[in-house]
Amino acid sequence: MSDRYGIVPVDAPSGAGYPVWVIQDHTTGHLVKALPPRPEPLRFYSYDQAERWVSANEQPLPAPETA
User: Fold this and answer.
1) Residues 7, 31, 11, 57: what is their CA dihedral angle, to the nearest 10 degrees?
2) Which of 28, 29, 30, 60 has its CA 20 to 30 A from that of 67?
């Protein structure tokens, strides 16, 4: 796994009893956004879910198939 993405905590909604995690792209310093056109960052309500996203998105792209 590379070090491109990091998982960082953010403030949960007021009164929420759970943590919220976002993904930071270390190459740009920006938070990974939810699908366009939504401007807010992609949020996870469990660290395990965030780790799975990072793991899936840090995998190298598969080699193109040759005919």
Assistant:
1) -40
2) 60
Cis bond before residue 39 (omega within 30° of 0)? no
- The pLDDT tens digits of the residues spanning 35-66 come to 877 788 999 999 999 999 999 888 665 667 77
Task: Please list, in sequence order, all residues whose beta carbon lies within 8 angstroms of the beta carbon of residue 38, skipping any fewer than 6 positions away.
Answer: none
User: Is the pTM for the entire model greater than 0.85?
Assistant: no
Give the model's pLDDT for residue 39.
81
Q: Does 13 sit behind a cis peptide bond, omega within 30 degrees of 0 on the bond before it?
A: no
Tokens of 58: 């840090």
Helix (H) or strand (E) holding 51: helix 47-57
